[in-house]
Here is the input.
Amino acid sequence: MDIILLGTGSPIPDPRRAGPATLVRAGGANILFDCGRGVVMRLAGAGVLPQQVTAVVITHMHSDHVCDLNDVITSHWVMSPRPQPLAVYGPVGTAELVQATLRMLAPDVGYRLEHHDDLDAGPDVVVTELAPGDAARIGACQLAAYPTEHAPVRPTLGFRITHGAAIAAIAGDTIPCEGLDALCTGAGVYVQTVIRQDLVRRVPSRRFQDILDYHSTVEQAGQTAARAGVGTLMLTHYVPPLQPGAEDEWRALAAAHFSGEIVLGDDLTQVTLAD
Ligand SMILES: [Zn+2]
Ligand SMILES: [Zn+2]
Here is the structure.
C-alpha cells in the first residue's frame, strides 16, 4: 500500500503546495481522499490519470477539501474511453454536494455531449453516504468510517483503509478525540492535518486565530500517534505553510511525544506499507 500526500497545503494559497488530498494505492485501486486545490495535477504527478481513480472519499465539506471535486468528476468522465461510474464516499451531505456540482457542470456536460458522437451520457457519479461505524469495500480494500471532531463542521469522518496487513488511518481535520484514537489504533500509517499553534498565535488576525480550536496541533498529532501505537505519523495540511528547511523543526514538535517515524514534506511525499 502506497500512501501519497498529493496536496500538503491549506486554504492559504501557496505556489508550492496543492490543497488537501491524499492518495492511497493498494490492490490495484487508486483511492483519493479529499479533492483540494490542484488535485488532478498532483494525481498526474503521482502517475494516476483521472479515469484511473477507483473511488473518491470525502472527509468533510470544508471548501479546501472539496473545491476540485468538479475537476475530478469532469476529467474522470471525459477521459474514460468507455462509460464507467465514479464512486464517491463521504459523510451525510455528500449526495447533495455531488448533485449541486453536477448542476454547476450541466452546461459543460451539454457542450461535450453535443460535440462528441461517441459520448452519449453525462458523468455517472455513484454516491454512498457513510455514518460512523459504516464500512465499504473498494476493490480489494476495506474502508471504515470513524467519527472525528471539527465543530462547527458536522458531520466529519476519518477513514481506516485496510488491504492485507496494511492499515492506513486518514484522519482529516480533527482535534484529538475518542473516535480519532479508535481510528488510529494499530495503524501502520496515520495521516493527520496539522497546524502550528505557536506560529498561528503570532498572527494578529482574529479570523486566523479562530482556526486554533478545531485542528490538531503538531504536538497533539504526536500524542495521538503515541496513544494509538501507530508505525508512522504523516503530517500534512501545514498551517502556516511549511517553509523550505523547516521540516526538522516541525518534526521535533511531534517527536517530543512520539518515538516512531515522522514523515512530512512537499507534495507527493510517499510512504509504502507492506500489504
Ligand atoms: Zn476543515
Ligand atoms: Zn482543512
